[in-house]
Design brief:
Elements (H helix, E strand, L loop, with lengths): L5 H14 L20 H12 L7 H32 L3 E2 L6 E2 L3 H8 L3 H41 L10 H14 L9 H29 L16 H18 L6 H5 L8 H31 L17 H37 L4 H4 L1 E4 L7 E4 H19 L5 H27 L7 H32 L10
Antiparallel strand pairs: 1-2, 3-4
Helix pairs in contact: 2-7, 2-10, 3-8, 3-10, 3-14, 4-5, 5-6, 5-11, 5-13, 5-14, 6-11, 6-13, 7-10, 7-11, 8-14, 8-15, 14-15
InterPro entries: AA_transpt_TM
Pfam family, one: Aa_trans
Protein name: Amino acid transporter transmembrane domain-containing protein
């Protein structure tokens, strides 16, 4: 539509008014873009892809730090708040009228329409820094799982006699190379099939992890753990406090997905209203995810008690059956390859959009080269997209190689992005959109919610930073063997 000029856009708009009073035509939506085809199921698969990540495997450790009472309560609390604020955010996809209002294609667009001013820049900085951080975290986590496959086979071959130390760099490089190939998928809405595959992988390794801890409980015949978590004596008082904060970081990361919620919603077809479909998808996805989190976290704690590993499938709470561990860790790697792209597509699109607007006459940036692929539709190769996305993958891979293989990094990333993107901006946009008066009962309740989770986020970030500092003491970039 953009290449056809304003006249043709106007003509299509007139046709949509005559034939379809609610906006759009058979080929185009009410904004002149090609008809969106996303459904409740594709939106749900995108959300599950973003939510049920490898963070689920650290929830047993997190529960062990908090105990049988606080652990499940904290998970349910984050689940409820994530659901509630996500519904507030979904209502901001259109400005004004939720059915016929102007579309906001990205999270930043929603903030610009509802809040404007300096908050737009703050939102963009937080969102895209968080996306960049997630890319690094996923690269580190994927390499841990790839190493776990190699190590489990090494242990099996040597009968546990070989310590099986290895360097993580080749695995990070391999993940980066695969990512470069997948990153050339040009449009976010073409990733629906990838999200479904990734969602299946999520359930695969989560189910295997859950099955193994059930088997462990059945083997020992008892449920381990305590009401208050790991006891002082096993760890010092200060370690108990910092570990509890780190556990919050792990749980926060497990529920972080709001930064791409608007982009997911922009793939939905209408009618019914996008916000209506999205709210159903949020309820279903968050509900299913919370069930998995509770089962894996609680049953993992029941199996191992205070000795719960930081990662159920790579911390070697299990050694056998080694082939099942290999399947689970392979599923994690496949999941992270896909989830990396789902998360990074908004960042890719943002940079490419800004660059195209700034240099509209540059063929390097705007021109597509059609490449014929037998049996498939032609692929549009854009040289700028090829260079920029490849450079992004190279940079994130190099930074990952400079950091220790630590779950605390993942927890820190989750903590830094959770409050502003999952709580603060959705609450502020809702207040602005509904014109809620200052100091009214609803306004006070929303502000209390925001402040409470700001405090929790600061605590989680502090715990994760403490963990990273400890890991850095024994880490040497590019040379440390694990």
């Amino acid at each position: 539509m953009g290449d056809d000029g304003n006249g043709r856009n106007h003509q299509v708009f007139d046709l949509s008014i005559d034939v379809h009073p609610q906006g759009g035509s058979k080929c185009y939506d009410d904004d002149g873009r090609l008809k969106r085809s996303g459904t409740f199921w594709t939106a749900s698969s995108h959300i599950v892809t973003a939510l049920i990540g490898s963070g689920v495997l650290s929830l047993a450790w997190a529960t062990a730090q908090l105990g049988w009472v606080t652990g499940p309560i904290v998970m349910l609390m984050f689940s409820s708040v994530t659901y509630y604020t996500s519904t507030l955010l979904a209502a901001c996809y259109r400005s004004g009228d939720t059915v016929h209002g102007k579309r906001n294609y990205t999270y930043m667009d929603a903030v610009r329409s509802n809040l404007g001013g300096f908050k737009v820049k703050i939102c963009g900085l937080v969102q895209y820094l968080n996306l960049f951080g997630v890319a690094i975290g996923y690269t580190i986590t994927a390499s841990i799982s790839m190493m776990a496959i190699k190590r489990s086979n090494c242990f099996h071959t040597s009968g546990g006699k070989n310590p099986c130390h290895m360097n993580s760099n080749p695995y990070m490089i391999a993940f980066g190379v695969v990512g470069i190939i997948f990153s050339q998928i040009p449009d976010f809405d073409q990733l629906w099939w990838l999200s479904i595959v990734v969602a299946v992988m999520s359930f695969t390794y989560s189910t295997i992890g859950f099955g193994l801890v059930i088997a462990k409980v059945a083997e020992t015949g008892k449920i381990r753990g305590s009401l208050t978590g790991i006891s002082v004596g096993t760890v010092t008082q200060s370690q108990k406090i910092w570990r509890s904060f780190q556990a919050l970081g792990d749980i926060v990361f497990a529920y972080s997905y709001s930064l791409i919620l608007i982009e997911i919603q922009d793939t939905l077809r209408a009618p019914p209203a996008e916000s209506r479909t999205m709210k159903k998808a949020i309820l279903t996805s968050v509900g299913v995810t919370t069930l998995f989190y509770m089962l894996c976290g609680c049953m993992g704690y029941a199996a191992f008690g205070d000795l719960s590993p930081r990662n159920l499938l790579t911390g070697f709470g299990f050694y056998n059956p080694f082939w099942l561990l290999d399947i689970a860790n392979a599923a994690i790697v496949i999941h992270l390859v896909g989830a990396y792209q789902v998360y990074c597509q908004p960042l890719f699109a943002f940079v490419e959009k800004i660059t195209a607007e700034k240099f509209p006459d540059s063929e390097f940036i705007t021109k597509d080269i059609k490449i014929t692929i037998p049996g498939f539709r032609p692929y549009n190769l854009n040289l700028f997209r090829l260079v920029w996305r490849t450079a992004f993958m190279v940079v994130t891979t190099l930074i990952s190689m400079l950091l220790p293989l630590s779950n605390d990094i993942v927890g820190l990333l989750g903590a830094l992005g959770f409050w502003p993107l999952t709580v603060y901006f959705p609450v502020e946009m809702y207040i602005s959109q509904k014109k809620i008066p200052n100091w009214s009962t609803r306004w006070i309740c929303l502000q209390i919610l925001s402040i409470a989770f700001l405090i929790i986020t600061i605590a989680a970030a502090a715990g994760s930073v403490a963990g990273v500092i400890i890991d850095l003491k024994s880490f040497k970039p590019f040379s440390t063997a694990y």
